[in-house]
Write a structure and sequence with these properties.
The chain is of the alpha+beta class and 88 residues long. It contains five helices and three strands; from the N terminus they run βααββααα. The chain has a three-stranded mixed beta sheet. The longest helix is centred in the middle third of the chain and has 15 residues. The protein is elongated and about 55 Å long.
Length: 88
């Protein structure tokens, strides 16, 4: 994680944005008013999708069951893409 002050952010915003995009690394900008985090939009969208899946009880249950099965050494039967994503 890259942390910088607000003045440095103001002076070097294009370079900071490029660094954040190139390195897929968060940039924390610190000001007297508070702290914000700059991240690549794709990373943000990925995090939002993970949060959405965790809020969906059926998706979360399937994820947890998959982890339990894997930890027990159980290999699930394969399914088609259509079967896996039937609800989308």
């Amino acid at each position: 994680m890259n942390a910088i002050g607000i003045q440095q952010a103001v002076q070097n915003l294009p370079q900071i944005i490029q660094y954040t995009l190139d390195n897929c690394e968060e940039t924390v900008i610190i000001s007297d008013s508070g702290v914000v985090v700059m991240i690549d939009q794709r990373e943000w969208e990925n995090m939002q999708e993970v949060l959405r899946l965790f809020r969906d009880k059926k998706s979360l249950g399937a994820l947890l069951e998959g982890h339990r099965s894997r930890e027990s050494g159980i290999v699930p039967d394969s399914v088609s893409v259509e079967e896996a994503f039937y609800d989308l």
